[in-house]
Records
---
Amino acid sequence: MSDENPSCPTPSGGEPTSTRSAAPMWIIVTTLVLLFLGGYYFDQHSGWFNPKVYAPYPNAEALGAYQPMSGDAAALARGKTVYESVCGICHGADGLGKPGQAPALAASELVITKGFNRLAHIPLAGLNGPIKVCGKDWSMAMAAMGAALPDDDLAAVLTYIRGAWGNKAGPVTGDDIKKIRAEIGKAPQVMTGDMMMKLPE
Ligand code: HEC
């Protein structure tokens, strides 16, 4: 009681005090859950502010995937998908190949040929070196990685690699592949590079 001024009024409820107590756990948890749900709802329904996106599509890509494509665009999209799942593992999604694994397809003189007879033989029959790609020697082996693909899918892949990454060579059709597959026959012989170069381009 020493330095208190006795003339100051004392409130009846005692001196006001301020307290600090942590927010209860349930508020924190509920807030996080609401934030998460809000974020999910935004992601699914906002179209990410793109006015062209409408329900039920969550974003422009999903919407685009449902748009009807012309035959060529559909074949190219199919070729890209098959390429990335079957060939890209070795040759790279960017077509640049991987050192010690597979040569480049981008700018490869075996891909951007005028005809595609030789090229189609590679995934249908398999290739067992030696070859030259972009001035580099390769002597590895590629199994008949495309032999199990339907004609249209292999055609789409070859069309894709002949047109992607700056390559500018003409398309291949399912009928083309059907013909070449028939010429190769049921028990294809894996080609050496020399055998391949003797085939008509
Ligand atoms: C398991 C790895 C692997 C997969 C998968 C693969 N390749 Fe290859 N590919 C190779 C290797 C290795 C060579 C080089 C062979 C040689 O040295 O004779 C090659 C060579 C080639 C060549 C000729 C060389 C060049 O770079 O132009 C073409 C064209 C080709 N592959 C296309 C394809 C296509 C199309 C597919 C998918 C249907 C495919 N490859 C899948 C490993 C692979």
---
Amino acid sequence: MQFRSTCIRAVLAMFAGILAQAGAQTQTPATPAQQTPQAPPTPKQAVKRDGYPEYDPAAVQRGQKTFVATCAFCHGSNAKGGETGPDLLRSVVVLDDENGNKIGQVVLNGRPDKGMPKFALSHDQIVDIAIFLHDRVKAAALRDTYKVLNIVVGDPRAGQAYFNGAGGCTSCHSVRGDLAHIGSKYDAVGVQQHIVMPREEHWGRRSQTDGPPVAPVTATVTLASGESFKGRLTRIDDFTVSIVDANGDLHSFTRNGDTPKVDIHDPMKGHFDLLAKYTDSDIHNLTAYLVTLK
Ligand code: HEC
Ligand code: HEC
């Protein structure tokens, strides 16, 4: 707590400057650091094995949520690199960062020519992301201890209760249906990762028309007359909306502003929205429960 309030105050002033800079559309000069691909695997403040700071778990969790929602698309949910973004746990920018000062520059300015867009995140969000990333670096360095902490501590009964109750998982999943063998499909780490970030490998083609739909996006189209049509969304732009109904019939409608009314339902969205609700122990308990489903 002491650490956090002090560091927040310290970075407030700093970020005011960075934000002003971003507002002025200034480009970050390419840092020489980014040319050095092989970063030492430990951050510089970590001189000995148990010398890592204790990061505020609430900040780590907030940072993870923002990261998963905003950055994981390219950098992977564990920040270890994705289809287009590099492994951030080996990034010199991250390893040199203190409370978001270096990471914030990249995030707020982006590197548009290199495929990294800029993001208008608040300084609090950036500090949280930075804390999350530093915690991941620490976790990678202390892998053995972290596995124990992260994976084995959950209570399967509490996980089951959460799954069937407060977690609301049963509105989309069934432990006798789609999740029946999840404990054989993935190891414990994999199960936990898929709770946080299901089907990450499909993110690149989650648009409605691309490839076979993983979890189809559906839409309800309501005409001015009140008549409505429901089905899998196959196309939507400013002028047209098309759905395929349960009989396999295609319905296309011309759009004119809000007419007809289109309600889009992305099944994955509900899963992602839940991220805001989970606590660490919910995730651990869910993991402990789901690994038993062999
Ligand atoms: C659309 C894909 C994409 C998204 C989304 C994205 N990044 Fe990146 N990011 C990249 C790419 C590509 C690079 C490498 C740029 C380069 O080569 O200089 C990069 C580089 C970085 C770097 C510098 C790494 C280094 O060592 O040079 C950091 C830090 C970073 N991203 C953080 C983030 C954070 C935090 C977010 C979310 C707020 C995010 N990125 C979202 C694609 C993305
Ligand atoms: C609003 C719907 C919705 C809710 C609620 C929801 N999920 Fe999901 N979840 C999905 C969808 C859609 C997928 C992707 C399924 C697919 O890939 O076919 C998914 C995927 C998963 C996966 C990965 C499955 C696999 O085989 O890779 C796990 C694990 C999972 N969810 C766990 C949960 C848990 C635990 C909860 C409750 C805390 C939950 N989900 C709540 C919609 C939901």
